[in-house]
Amino acid sequence: MNLWARFRGGVHPDARKTTAQCATQPLPRPERVVLPLRQHIGAPCQPLVKKGDEVALGQPIGDVDAPVSAPVHASVSGKVVAVEPRLTPGGRTEQAVVIEAAPEDVPWEGLPEGLGWDLDPESLDPAFIRDRVRQAGLVGMGGAGFPAAVKLTPRPGSEPDVVILNGAECEPAITSDHRLMLEQPEQVVLGLRLFMRACGARRGVIGVEANKPDAAAKLSQLVAGDPALSVEVLPVRYPQGAEKMLVWALLRRAVPVGGIPLDVGVVVQNVATAAAAAVALAEGRPLTHRIVTVSGRVASPGNWRVPLGTSFVDLMQAAGGLTGALARVIAGGPMMGIAQPDLDVPVIKTTGSVILLGPEDLHETPAGPCIRCGRCVTACPMGLLPAQLCDAAMASDWARAERFHVRACMECGSCSYVCPARRPLVQSIRLAKSELGRRARGGRG
Ligand code: SF4
Ligand code: SF4
Questions:
Q1: Distance between CA 382 and CA 258 in Å, rounded?
Q2: Atom of ligand 1 nearest to the CA of 411
Q3: Quick one: which of 3, 264, 270, 278 has the fewest CB in 10 Å?
Q4: What is the Cα gyration radius of the chain?
Q5: Any idea which fold 28-111+291-360 has?
Q6: pLDDT in tens, 115-129
Q7: Neighbour count for residue 407 (Cβ, 10 Å)
Q8: Any idea what DSSP says for residue 262?
Protein backbone atom coordinates (compact mmCIF):
# COMPACT_ATOMS: atom_id res chain seq x y z
CA MET A 1 0.00 0.00 0.00
CA ASN A 2 1.15 3.50 -0.78
CA LEU A 3 1.16 4.99 2.72
CA TRP A 4 2.03 8.43 1.36
CA ALA A 5 -1.20 8.43 -0.61
CA ARG A 6 -3.07 10.50 1.97
CA PHE A 7 -5.02 13.71 1.79
CA ARG A 8 -5.91 16.05 4.60
CA GLY A 9 -9.22 15.63 6.42
CA GLY A 10 -11.74 12.97 5.54
CA VAL A 11 -13.59 10.45 7.69
CA HIS A 12 -13.94 6.72 8.28
CA PRO A 13 -17.62 5.84 7.91
CA ASP A 14 -18.67 2.23 8.48
CA ALA A 15 -17.95 0.62 5.06
CA ARG A 16 -20.98 -1.72 5.02
CA LYS A 17 -19.73 -3.37 1.80
CA THR A 18 -21.94 -6.39 2.44
CA THR A 19 -22.46 -7.05 -1.28
CA ALA A 20 -18.76 -7.16 -2.18
CA GLN A 21 -18.80 -10.93 -2.65
CA CYS A 22 -22.08 -10.95 -4.61
CA ALA A 23 -21.23 -11.69 -8.25
CA THR A 24 -22.98 -9.48 -10.78
CA GLN A 25 -26.22 -11.00 -12.08
CA PRO A 26 -28.19 -9.98 -15.16
CA LEU A 27 -31.45 -8.24 -14.23
CA PRO A 28 -34.60 -9.81 -15.71
CA ARG A 29 -35.43 -7.73 -18.78
CA PRO A 30 -37.76 -4.85 -17.76
CA GLU A 31 -41.09 -4.37 -19.58
CA ARG A 32 -40.44 -0.67 -19.98
CA VAL A 33 -37.51 1.70 -19.68
CA VAL A 34 -37.45 5.47 -19.12
CA LEU A 35 -34.37 7.14 -20.65
CA PRO A 36 -33.87 10.78 -19.63
CA LEU A 37 -32.35 12.88 -22.40
CA ARG A 38 -29.88 14.43 -19.95
CA GLN A 39 -27.88 11.87 -18.00
CA HIS A 40 -24.74 14.00 -18.01
CA ILE A 41 -23.41 17.42 -17.07
CA GLY A 42 -24.01 19.71 -20.04
CA ALA A 43 -26.62 20.43 -22.67
CA PRO A 44 -29.68 18.13 -22.73
CA CYS A 45 -30.13 15.97 -25.81
CA GLN A 46 -32.92 16.56 -28.27
CA PRO A 47 -35.08 13.51 -29.01
CA LEU A 48 -34.24 11.68 -32.25
CA VAL A 49 -37.40 9.54 -31.99
CA LYS A 50 -41.09 10.16 -31.45
CA LYS A 51 -44.04 8.31 -29.97
CA GLY A 52 -44.87 5.23 -32.06
CA ASP A 53 -41.33 4.67 -33.44
CA GLU A 54 -39.80 1.21 -33.26
CA VAL A 55 -36.23 1.28 -31.89
CA ALA A 56 -33.45 -1.30 -31.71
CA LEU A 57 -30.96 -1.98 -28.91
CA GLY A 58 -28.16 0.60 -29.07
CA GLN A 59 -29.96 2.99 -31.41
CA PRO A 60 -29.32 6.68 -30.62
CA ILE A 61 -32.58 8.18 -29.32
CA GLY A 62 -31.25 11.58 -28.28
CA ASP A 63 -28.31 13.81 -29.16
CA VAL A 64 -27.39 17.48 -29.42
CA ASP A 65 -24.72 19.44 -31.21
CA ALA A 66 -23.16 21.04 -28.12
CA PRO A 67 -19.56 20.93 -26.94
CA VAL A 68 -20.43 19.40 -23.55
CA SER A 69 -22.97 16.62 -24.14
CA ALA A 70 -23.33 12.88 -24.70
CA PRO A 71 -25.92 11.00 -26.77
CA VAL A 72 -28.44 8.60 -25.23
CA HIS A 73 -29.18 5.16 -26.71
CA ALA A 74 -32.05 2.68 -26.50
CA SER A 75 -31.24 0.10 -23.81
CA VAL A 76 -33.85 -2.35 -25.12
CA SER A 77 -35.49 -2.97 -28.48
CA GLY A 78 -39.12 -1.92 -28.52
CA LYS A 79 -41.63 0.80 -29.21
CA VAL A 80 -41.47 4.43 -28.07
CA VAL A 81 -44.67 5.02 -26.10
CA ALA A 82 -43.92 8.55 -24.88
CA VAL A 83 -41.45 11.42 -24.98
CA GLU A 84 -42.32 13.37 -21.87
CA PRO A 85 -40.91 14.97 -18.70
CA ARG A 86 -39.90 12.44 -16.04
CA LEU A 87 -38.25 12.70 -12.64
CA THR A 88 -34.60 11.60 -12.61
CA PRO A 89 -32.49 10.30 -9.67
CA GLY A 90 -30.69 13.65 -9.60
CA GLY A 91 -33.94 15.25 -8.40
CA ARG A 92 -34.61 17.12 -11.67
CA THR A 93 -37.37 16.61 -14.16
CA GLU A 94 -36.02 16.02 -17.67
CA GLN A 95 -37.49 15.10 -21.05
CA ALA A 96 -37.32 11.32 -21.34
CA VAL A 97 -37.98 8.66 -23.97
CA VAL A 98 -40.19 5.86 -22.66
CA ILE A 99 -39.77 2.52 -24.48
CA GLU A 100 -42.01 -0.52 -24.12
CA ALA A 101 -39.72 -3.51 -24.52
CA ALA A 102 -40.21 -5.97 -27.39
CA PRO A 103 -39.98 -9.69 -26.49
CA GLU A 104 -36.35 -9.79 -27.71
CA ASP A 105 -33.50 -7.38 -28.23
CA VAL A 106 -32.22 -6.85 -31.75
CA PRO A 107 -28.99 -4.80 -32.07
CA TRP A 108 -29.30 -1.60 -34.09
CA GLU A 109 -27.93 -2.15 -37.58
CA GLY A 110 -26.22 1.25 -37.61
CA LEU A 111 -23.77 0.34 -34.79
CA PRO A 112 -20.16 1.13 -35.71
CA GLU A 113 -17.93 -1.83 -36.48
CA GLY A 114 -16.04 -3.25 -33.48
CA LEU A 115 -12.26 -3.44 -33.75
CA GLY A 116 -12.01 -6.70 -31.78
CA TRP A 117 -10.58 -7.39 -28.33
CA ASP A 118 -7.02 -7.65 -29.67
CA LEU A 119 -7.06 -4.02 -30.81
CA ASP A 120 -3.86 -2.01 -30.26
CA PRO A 121 -4.65 1.47 -28.86
CA GLU A 122 -1.28 2.79 -30.09
CA SER A 123 -2.32 2.07 -33.69
CA LEU A 124 -5.44 4.26 -33.41
CA ASP A 125 -5.80 7.95 -34.17
CA PRO A 126 -6.54 9.79 -30.85
CA ALA A 127 -9.35 11.79 -32.48
CA PHE A 128 -10.93 8.50 -33.68
CA ILE A 129 -10.96 7.16 -30.10
CA ARG A 130 -12.48 10.40 -28.76
CA ASP A 131 -15.12 10.30 -31.48
CA ARG A 132 -16.05 6.69 -30.66
CA VAL A 133 -16.17 7.53 -26.94
CA ARG A 134 -18.58 10.37 -27.66
CA GLN A 135 -20.69 8.34 -30.09
CA ALA A 136 -21.05 5.65 -27.40
CA GLY A 137 -22.51 8.21 -24.98
CA LEU A 138 -19.83 7.69 -22.33
CA VAL A 139 -19.90 9.88 -19.23
CA GLY A 140 -18.29 9.72 -15.80
CA MET A 141 -20.08 6.69 -14.36
CA GLY A 142 -18.83 7.26 -10.80
CA GLY A 143 -21.55 9.84 -10.28
CA ALA A 144 -20.23 13.02 -11.87
CA GLY A 145 -21.66 12.38 -15.34
CA PHE A 146 -19.13 14.59 -17.13
CA PRO A 147 -18.91 13.60 -20.82
CA ALA A 148 -15.82 11.39 -21.15
CA ALA A 149 -14.81 12.59 -24.62
CA VAL A 150 -14.65 16.21 -23.44
CA LYS A 151 -12.22 15.27 -20.65
CA LEU A 152 -10.02 13.48 -23.18
CA THR A 153 -9.74 16.46 -25.53
CA PRO A 154 -6.46 18.25 -24.77
CA ARG A 155 -6.59 22.00 -24.37
CA PRO A 156 -3.79 24.23 -25.62
CA GLY A 157 -1.35 24.77 -22.76
CA SER A 158 -2.62 21.92 -20.54
CA GLU A 159 -1.85 18.63 -22.24
CA PRO A 160 -2.25 15.77 -19.75
CA ASP A 161 0.65 13.46 -19.00
CA VAL A 162 -1.22 11.08 -16.65
CA VAL A 163 -4.58 9.30 -16.76
CA ILE A 164 -5.88 8.17 -13.36
CA LEU A 165 -8.60 5.54 -13.24
CA ASN A 166 -10.71 5.94 -10.14
CA GLY A 167 -11.35 2.55 -8.56
CA ALA A 168 -11.46 3.88 -4.99
CA GLU A 169 -15.23 3.43 -4.52
CA CYS A 170 -14.92 5.07 -1.12
CA GLU A 171 -18.65 5.55 -0.44
CA PRO A 172 -20.08 3.02 2.01
CA ALA A 173 -22.45 0.30 0.72
CA ILE A 174 -21.50 0.55 -2.99
CA THR A 175 -19.71 -2.40 -4.60
CA SER A 176 -20.53 -2.03 -8.31
CA ASP A 177 -17.03 -0.82 -9.27
CA HIS A 178 -15.46 -3.50 -7.08
CA ARG A 179 -17.36 -6.22 -8.96
CA LEU A 180 -16.52 -4.62 -12.30
CA MET A 181 -12.78 -4.58 -11.49
CA LEU A 182 -12.96 -8.24 -10.43
CA GLU A 183 -15.14 -9.48 -13.28
CA GLN A 184 -13.98 -7.31 -16.20
CA PRO A 185 -10.38 -6.32 -15.37
CA GLU A 186 -9.17 -6.73 -18.97
CA GLN A 187 -11.77 -4.20 -20.09
CA VAL A 188 -10.67 -1.74 -17.39
CA VAL A 189 -7.01 -1.95 -18.46
CA LEU A 190 -7.82 -1.71 -22.19
CA GLY A 191 -10.00 1.32 -21.42
CA LEU A 192 -7.08 2.92 -19.57
CA ARG A 193 -4.79 2.38 -22.57
CA LEU A 194 -7.43 3.83 -24.91
CA PHE A 195 -7.85 6.90 -22.71
CA MET A 196 -4.07 7.42 -22.55
CA ARG A 197 -3.82 7.21 -26.34
CA ALA A 198 -6.86 9.51 -26.76
CA CYS A 199 -5.41 12.33 -24.67
CA GLY A 200 -1.68 11.78 -25.25
CA ALA A 201 -0.79 10.79 -21.66
CA ARG A 202 2.25 8.55 -21.25
CA ARG A 203 1.39 7.24 -17.79
CA GLY A 204 -1.69 5.46 -16.44
CA VAL A 205 -2.49 4.80 -12.76
CA ILE A 206 -5.41 2.84 -11.32
CA GLY A 207 -6.20 3.87 -7.72
CA VAL A 208 -7.93 1.17 -5.64
CA GLU A 209 -8.73 1.41 -1.92
CA ALA A 210 -7.08 -1.20 0.31
CA ASN A 211 -10.43 -2.81 1.16
CA LYS A 212 -10.51 -4.33 -2.36
CA PRO A 213 -7.28 -6.38 -2.35
CA ASP A 214 -8.66 -9.00 -4.77
CA ALA A 215 -9.47 -6.34 -7.39
CA ALA A 216 -6.09 -4.64 -6.92
CA ALA A 217 -4.32 -8.01 -7.32
CA LYS A 218 -6.16 -8.84 -10.57
CA LEU A 219 -5.45 -5.46 -12.09
CA SER A 220 -1.80 -5.56 -10.92
CA GLN A 221 -1.32 -8.89 -12.72
CA LEU A 222 -2.64 -7.39 -15.93
CA VAL A 223 -0.42 -4.28 -15.87
CA ALA A 224 2.73 -6.14 -14.72
CA GLY A 225 5.50 -5.72 -17.26
CA ASP A 226 4.18 -2.43 -18.66
CA PRO A 227 6.23 0.40 -17.12
CA ALA A 228 3.65 2.98 -18.24
CA LEU A 229 0.90 1.46 -16.07
CA SER A 230 0.57 0.93 -12.34
CA VAL A 231 -2.01 0.01 -9.72
CA GLU A 232 -1.79 2.00 -6.47
CA VAL A 233 -3.44 0.70 -3.31
CA LEU A 234 -4.81 3.61 -1.30
CA PRO A 235 -5.62 3.87 2.41
CA VAL A 236 -9.33 3.51 3.14
CA ARG A 237 -10.58 6.99 3.84
CA TYR A 238 -13.62 8.90 2.62
CA PRO A 239 -13.70 10.85 0.20
CA GLN A 240 -10.65 9.16 -1.33
CA GLY A 241 -12.50 8.84 -4.65
CA ALA A 242 -13.04 12.58 -5.11
CA GLU A 243 -10.97 13.70 -8.10
CA LYS A 244 -8.97 16.33 -6.25
CA MET A 245 -8.17 13.95 -3.40
CA LEU A 246 -7.10 11.24 -5.81
CA VAL A 247 -4.81 13.55 -7.80
CA TRP A 248 -3.17 14.78 -4.61
CA ALA A 249 -2.90 11.33 -3.01
CA LEU A 250 -1.40 9.66 -6.08
CA LEU A 251 0.66 12.42 -7.68
CA ARG A 252 1.04 15.16 -5.04
CA ARG A 253 -0.40 17.66 -7.51
CA ALA A 254 -2.84 20.21 -6.08
CA VAL A 255 -5.81 21.06 -8.29
CA PRO A 256 -6.45 24.81 -7.84
CA VAL A 257 -9.70 26.03 -6.25
CA GLY A 258 -12.27 26.26 -9.03
CA GLY A 259 -9.98 24.24 -11.31
CA ILE A 260 -10.04 20.75 -12.75
CA PRO A 261 -7.42 17.95 -12.80
CA LEU A 262 -6.49 18.88 -16.40
CA ASP A 263 -5.10 22.15 -14.98
CA VAL A 264 -2.35 20.03 -13.42
CA GLY A 265 -1.93 17.68 -16.37
CA VAL A 266 -4.24 14.88 -15.23
CA VAL A 267 -7.34 13.22 -16.66
CA VAL A 268 -9.40 11.29 -14.11
CA GLN A 269 -11.95 8.74 -15.32
CA ASN A 270 -13.96 6.13 -13.46
CA VAL A 271 -13.09 2.43 -13.92
CA ALA A 272 -16.62 1.70 -15.23
CA THR A 273 -16.24 4.43 -17.86
CA ALA A 274 -12.94 2.84 -18.93
CA ALA A 275 -14.55 -0.60 -19.28
CA ALA A 276 -17.41 0.93 -21.28
CA ALA A 277 -14.86 2.61 -23.60
CA ALA A 278 -13.20 -0.76 -24.21
CA VAL A 279 -16.59 -2.27 -25.15
CA ALA A 280 -17.37 0.70 -27.41
CA LEU A 281 -14.12 0.35 -29.36
CA ALA A 282 -13.79 -3.45 -29.35
CA GLU A 283 -17.43 -4.33 -30.06
CA GLY A 284 -18.95 -1.08 -31.31
CA ARG A 285 -21.59 -1.15 -28.54
CA PRO A 286 -22.70 2.11 -26.88
CA LEU A 287 -23.43 2.58 -23.18
CA THR A 288 -26.80 0.87 -22.60
CA HIS A 289 -26.23 -1.10 -19.37
CA ARG A 290 -24.35 -0.67 -16.09
CA ILE A 291 -23.77 -2.50 -12.80
CA VAL A 292 -25.90 -1.30 -9.88
CA THR A 293 -25.59 -2.35 -6.23
CA VAL A 294 -28.96 -2.81 -4.50
CA SER A 295 -28.73 -2.91 -0.70
CA GLY A 296 -30.56 -2.12 2.51
CA ARG A 297 -33.88 -3.62 3.57
CA VAL A 298 -34.26 -6.07 0.69
CA ALA A 299 -34.30 -9.88 0.87
CA SER A 300 -31.28 -10.44 -1.42
CA PRO A 301 -28.92 -7.47 -1.63
CA GLY A 302 -26.48 -7.76 -4.53
CA ASN A 303 -25.09 -6.39 -7.77
CA TRP A 304 -27.04 -6.41 -11.03
CA ARG A 305 -26.23 -5.63 -14.63
CA VAL A 306 -29.09 -3.36 -15.53
CA PRO A 307 -30.42 -1.81 -18.77
CA LEU A 308 -30.35 1.97 -18.34
CA GLY A 309 -33.84 3.32 -17.78
CA THR A 310 -34.88 0.40 -15.54
CA SER A 311 -37.18 1.53 -12.72
CA PHE A 312 -35.99 1.30 -9.10
CA VAL A 313 -39.15 -0.82 -8.56
CA ASP A 314 -37.72 -3.50 -10.88
CA LEU A 315 -34.42 -3.36 -8.99
CA MET A 316 -36.18 -3.83 -5.67
CA GLN A 317 -38.10 -6.83 -7.03
CA ALA A 318 -34.92 -8.38 -8.46
CA ALA A 319 -33.41 -8.07 -4.98
CA GLY A 320 -36.22 -10.17 -3.53
CA GLY A 321 -38.49 -7.31 -2.44
CA LEU A 322 -38.61 -5.35 0.79
CA THR A 323 -38.20 -7.04 4.15
CA GLY A 324 -40.18 -4.40 6.02
CA ALA A 325 -41.50 -0.87 5.75
CA LEU A 326 -39.70 1.48 3.36
CA ALA A 327 -38.74 4.84 4.85
CA ARG A 328 -36.18 6.21 2.40
CA VAL A 329 -34.70 5.43 -1.02
CA ILE A 330 -31.23 6.74 -1.85
CA ALA A 331 -29.67 6.85 -5.30
CA GLY A 332 -25.91 6.64 -4.74
CA GLY A 333 -24.13 6.15 -1.44
CA PRO A 334 -25.18 7.19 2.06
CA MET A 335 -22.68 10.10 2.12
CA MET A 336 -23.33 11.84 -1.21
CA GLY A 337 -26.41 10.04 -2.50
CA ILE A 338 -29.74 11.72 -3.19
CA ALA A 339 -32.96 10.77 -1.37
CA GLN A 340 -35.73 9.93 -3.83
CA PRO A 341 -39.38 10.87 -3.40
CA ASP A 342 -40.43 7.35 -4.47
CA LEU A 343 -39.30 4.28 -6.41
CA ASP A 344 -40.65 5.43 -9.77
CA VAL A 345 -37.31 6.77 -11.03
CA PRO A 346 -35.00 5.18 -13.60
CA VAL A 347 -31.41 3.98 -13.38
CA ILE A 348 -29.25 6.39 -15.39
CA LYS A 349 -25.60 6.31 -16.49
CA THR A 350 -24.41 7.61 -13.11
CA THR A 351 -26.49 5.32 -10.85
CA GLY A 352 -24.04 2.95 -9.17
CA SER A 353 -26.19 2.09 -6.19
CA VAL A 354 -29.70 2.13 -4.80
CA ILE A 355 -30.19 1.84 -1.03
CA LEU A 356 -33.59 1.06 0.47
CA LEU A 357 -33.83 2.06 4.12
CA GLY A 358 -36.42 1.21 6.75
CA PRO A 359 -37.59 3.42 9.65
CA GLU A 360 -35.10 1.64 11.94
CA ASP A 361 -32.22 2.95 9.77
CA LEU A 362 -33.06 6.61 10.20
CA HIS A 363 -31.62 8.17 13.33
CA GLU A 364 -32.79 11.70 12.88
CA THR A 365 -32.09 13.82 15.92
CA PRO A 366 -32.89 17.53 15.89
CA ALA A 367 -30.00 19.92 15.24
CA GLY A 368 -28.54 21.59 18.31
CA PRO A 369 -26.44 24.75 18.60
CA CYS A 370 -22.86 24.68 17.37
CA ILE A 371 -20.50 23.91 20.25
CA ARG A 372 -17.43 25.17 18.33
CA CYS A 373 -15.67 21.84 18.65
CA GLY A 374 -13.92 22.24 15.31
CA ARG A 375 -14.51 18.65 14.18
CA CYS A 376 -16.05 19.80 10.91
CA VAL A 377 -12.92 21.83 10.15
CA THR A 378 -10.65 18.86 10.82
CA ALA A 379 -12.81 16.61 8.62
CA CYS A 380 -13.10 18.96 5.64
CA PRO A 381 -10.75 17.74 2.90
CA MET A 382 -10.97 21.12 1.16
CA GLY A 383 -9.73 23.08 4.19
CA LEU A 384 -13.01 25.01 4.54
CA LEU A 385 -14.82 26.27 7.66
CA PRO A 386 -18.15 24.39 7.40
CA ALA A 387 -19.63 25.91 10.60
CA GLN A 388 -19.03 29.43 9.25
CA LEU A 389 -20.51 28.49 5.88
CA CYS A 390 -23.58 27.07 7.61
CA ASP A 391 -24.01 30.24 9.70
CA ALA A 392 -23.71 32.41 6.58
CA ALA A 393 -26.26 30.31 4.66
CA MET A 394 -28.72 30.31 7.56
CA ALA A 395 -28.46 34.10 7.72
CA SER A 396 -28.90 34.29 3.91
CA ASP A 397 -25.58 36.15 3.91
CA TRP A 398 -24.50 34.90 0.47
CA ALA A 399 -21.62 37.38 0.18
CA ARG A 400 -20.14 36.00 3.41
CA ALA A 401 -20.56 32.44 2.18
CA GLU A 402 -18.68 33.40 -0.96
CA ARG A 403 -15.90 35.04 1.07
CA PHE A 404 -15.51 31.73 2.91
CA HIS A 405 -15.14 29.94 -0.47
CA VAL A 406 -18.41 28.05 -0.43
CA ARG A 407 -17.99 27.19 -4.11
CA ALA A 408 -14.91 25.09 -3.27
CA CYS A 409 -17.11 22.69 -1.28
CA MET A 410 -17.53 19.36 -3.09
CA GLU A 411 -20.50 18.38 -0.92
CA CYS A 412 -18.79 15.24 0.37
CA GLY A 413 -20.75 15.38 3.64
CA SER A 414 -17.72 14.66 5.87
CA CYS A 415 -18.48 17.72 8.01
CA SER A 416 -22.09 16.68 8.61
CA TYR A 417 -20.96 13.14 9.39
CA VAL A 418 -18.72 14.22 12.28
CA CYS A 419 -20.81 17.07 13.71
CA PRO A 420 -21.94 16.12 17.26
CA ALA A 421 -24.62 18.82 17.18
CA ARG A 422 -26.11 17.39 13.95
CA ARG A 423 -25.92 20.81 12.30
CA PRO A 424 -27.34 20.75 8.74
CA LEU A 425 -23.90 21.67 7.35
CA VAL A 426 -23.85 20.18 3.87
CA GLN A 427 -27.54 20.98 3.32
CA SER A 428 -27.02 24.67 4.08
CA ILE A 429 -23.85 24.75 1.98
CA ARG A 430 -25.80 23.27 -0.96
CA LEU A 431 -28.41 25.98 -0.45
CA ALA A 432 -25.75 28.72 -0.53
CA LYS A 433 -24.13 27.27 -3.66
CA SER A 434 -27.45 26.98 -5.42
CA GLU A 435 -28.42 30.55 -4.47
CA LEU A 436 -25.07 31.93 -5.66
CA GLY A 437 -25.44 29.93 -8.89
CA ARG A 438 -28.94 31.34 -9.39
CA ARG A 439 -27.66 34.88 -8.88
CA ALA A 440 -24.78 34.27 -11.29
CA ARG A 441 -27.35 33.27 -13.93
CA GLY A 442 -29.06 36.60 -13.43
CA GLY A 443 -31.69 35.34 -10.98
CA ARG A 444 -33.08 32.68 -13.33
CA GLY A 445 -34.06 29.19 -12.17
S1 SF4 B 1 -17.56 21.80 3.68
FE2 SF4 B 1 -17.97 20.68 1.80
S3 SF4 B 1 -15.99 19.77 1.20
FE4 SF4 B 1 -15.85 20.38 3.38
S5 SF4 B 1 -16.43 18.53 4.51
FE6 SF4 B 1 -18.29 19.75 4.29
S7 SF4 B 1 -19.25 18.93 2.45
FE8 SF4 B 1 -17.11 18.22 2.40
S1 SF4 C 1 -18.65 20.01 14.08
FE2 SF4 C 1 -20.67 20.88 14.44
S3 SF4 C 1 -20.62 21.57 16.55
FE4 SF4 C 1 -18.49 21.22 15.94
S5 SF4 C 1 -17.79 23.24 15.17
FE6 SF4 C 1 -18.57 22.13 13.41
S7 SF4 C 1 -20.71 22.77 13.25
FE8 SF4 C 1 -20.03 23.32 15.31
A1: 11
A2: 7
A3: 3
A4: 21
A5: Ubiquitin-like (UB roll) (3.10.20)
A6: 999 999 999 999 999
A7: 16
A8: G
